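Re: beginner question about structure tokens

> Can someone show what the tokenized structure looks like for a real chain? I only ever see the sequence side.

Sure, here's an example I had lying around. Input first:
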Amino acid sequence: MKGLSRARFLAGAATLTAAGLNGSLAGAQGAAGNRIDVHRHPNPPFFTDAVQAAGRATSPTLRRSTAQTLLADMDAAGVATGILSIAPDPAIFFGDVEAARRLARACNEYMAELRRTYPGRYGIFAALPMPDVEGSLREIAYAFDQLKVEGIGLFTSYDRRYLGDASFDPLWAELNRRKAVVFTHPLANDCCQNLVPGVPPAIIEFGTDTTRTIASLVFSGTASRYPEVRVIFSHAGGTMPFLIERFNEQARLPASAAMVPNGVEYVLKKFYYDTAQASNPEAMGALLRLVPSTQVLFGTDFPYRKGTDNVAGLAALNFDPPLAAAIDRGNALRLLGRS
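And the corresponding structure tokens:
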């Protein structure tokens, strides 16, 4: 693959020993550090081309993510292994089912090639051609059985349908059968573009869309029906921790209570949450008052934020060393090392 330098990896992480997350994650420690970053976006050049050909805009920031900048940022932030997922601008599907299937496969092959070229440095949350459920089921089989990925990457909504929508049940059934890890990333739903002049959707709508899809999974009963799926939510769960009182009130309604037989907080405490764009006392304080520290994972959101930003933010919180180590590495090791 053009632009990938094996020498760059060997010079930067000579002590790395793991062949990959599903091989020996415990050995994946580079010269720069041992963090596991579950939220890192590559930019396949053909992805940008496909987005532009479909008449959609892609972020200039994403274009700065290359094989070289991915690794340089990881080394600077002490990240031994980054889990790759396709960025949300603007997902995979542009109206053509077959084109979406081809694009998802190409993105997954691209990430697999990065992992082969830089052994131990990368894992993969595979892209799916959603909302095409049939094509997504095929891609799940290929991703797990052939590419040996660590999990699946989903966006929070598709065509204004959130992840608990009944049409997605076959997808969740298969992910449940595989006891899969599912990484979710928000986007700006078509319902809510440009609502506040001068404020990009990512500032408000990303956190809101995460909360909407959490509510969808919880109150549709999807999370309870498919308990073997291990779901990661970006950005500390969006606005959900701040709306917990409202979630609890919703759970008092008979129809909602039937969907959460063990209570709404039982479900929320089983989910995982990353620290991307949330390494501050307000977000982390709210999250850690709600969920066990075992459910919090280190994430950076590169290239939209530098890895060192997240490291500095978490360091300023002065977590006890065992908690800091669990967030940096231990929790992800436990979650992904058994995928």
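Each token stands for a local structural state, so reading them left to right follows the chain. The chain has 15 helices and ten strands.
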